[in-house]
């Protein structure tokens, strides 16, 4: 249906809980708002929903007013936003999902909402995806299966998504079912969102077609580093796999990042440790081991971040690094 004048209003419910991800809320609402503007119609409307009605805030100190989740939903879509606290009880919404699906709504789970659903179903399948940080946490917590690293995945019943900026790609694709392709393109142009990525596109970190620099050898090296954070490869092993010399690899890293390969690799592993400290209950020693630091992990972490792993966990309890 692409004629706004003859289109019925599409109702969207946005389910939030305390510490929701502002980036994802903005992506959903701004795309819908701009679609209304571009089509000179009110083809989309939206309502914030929560288990507890009233003011709901995010870590960025913005607040919205949410209405209670209805007993009999009338929405065409339900978006469940991610959360800065991956263990927030508000993410456990399987009864809500079933209620909306029973009424014929399309359900979209973003980031932590998707990973909670995956964890509660007990298996990581190729029909579901989540943000790569959450995928790492699922793996560390022993959730079986491999899962998908796509930006979004539709299993035929609901859509799971990596969330964050990929929310723009997803909702731009979804509104194409209700407005013309030209309207979608115009909304994308207003947002300066040059290319709408397909749902099957791989996430930059988790994907296998990573391109960070445009330098093939360097990109392949970074991909190998990312795939081997727990048991780091020696630089000699990396260059052997890449078919280049150590000196050549050092020149590539110096030219693009002004850093040595070892220093870059160490920072990737420390960043992964940061994620595990915030999003899991693994002890500090086990976090170090999971990131390839059998010795001296606390000192290295303190030197890089200016805080010990234990102190950081206390400061950022429940916090996601990009929230």
Automatic annotation (TrEMBL):
It comes from the Bacteria. SUPFAM superfamilies: Class I glutamine amidotransferase-like (SSF52317), Homeodomain-like (SSF46689). Keywords: DNA-binding, Transcription, Transcription regulation. It holds the Pfam family HTH_18. InterPro entries: Class_I_gatase-like, Homeodomain-like_sf, HTH_AraC. This is Helix-turn-helix domain-containing protein. PANTHER family: ARAC-FAMILY TRANSCRIPTIONAL REGULATOR (PTHR43280), HTH-TYPE TRANSCRIPTIONAL REGULATOR EXSA (PTHR43280:SF2). Residues 219-315 form the HTH araC/xylS-type domain. The keyword NADP does not apply.
């Amino acid at each position: 249906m692409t004629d706004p004048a003859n289109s019925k209003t599409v109702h969207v419910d946005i389910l939030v809980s305390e510490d929701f991800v502002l980036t994802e809320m903005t992506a959903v609402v701004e795309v819908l708002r701009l679609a209304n503007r571009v089509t000179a119609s009110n083809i989309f409307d939206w309502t914030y929903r929560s288990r507890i009605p009233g003011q709901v805030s995010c870590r960025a100190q913005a607040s919205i007013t949410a209405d209670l989740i209805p007993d009999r939903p009338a929405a065409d879509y339900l978006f469940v936003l991610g959360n800065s606290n991956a263990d927030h009880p508000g993410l456990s919404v399987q009864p809500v999902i079933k209620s909306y699906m029973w009424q014929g709504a399309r359900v979209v789970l973003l980031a932590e909402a998707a990973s909670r659903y995956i964890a509660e179903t007990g298996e990581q399948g190729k029909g579901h995806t989540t943000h790569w940080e959450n995928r790492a946490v699922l793996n560390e917590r022993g959730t079986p299966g491999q899962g998908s690293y796509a930006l979004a995945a539709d299993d035929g019943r609901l859509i799971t998504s990596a969330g964050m900026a990929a929310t723009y790609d997803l909702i731009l694709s979804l509104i194409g079912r209700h407005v013309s392709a030209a309207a979608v393109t115009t909304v994308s142009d207003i947002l300066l969102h040059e290319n709408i990525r397909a749902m099957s596109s791989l996430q930059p970190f988790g994907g296998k077609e990573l391109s960070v620099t445009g330098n093939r050898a360097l990109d392949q090296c970074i991909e190998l580093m990312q795939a081997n954070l727990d048991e780091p490869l020696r630089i000699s092993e990396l260059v052997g796999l890449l078919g280049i010399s150590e000196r050549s690899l050092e020149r590539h890293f110096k030219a693009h990042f002004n850093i040595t390969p070892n220093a870059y690799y160490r920072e990737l592993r420390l960043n992964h440790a940061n994620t595990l400290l915030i999003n899991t209950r693994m002890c500090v020693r086990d976090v170090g081991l999971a990131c390839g630091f059998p010795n001296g992990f606390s000192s290295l972490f303190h030197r890089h971040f200016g805080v010990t792993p234990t102190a950081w966990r206390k400061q950022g309890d429940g916090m996601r690094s990009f929230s």
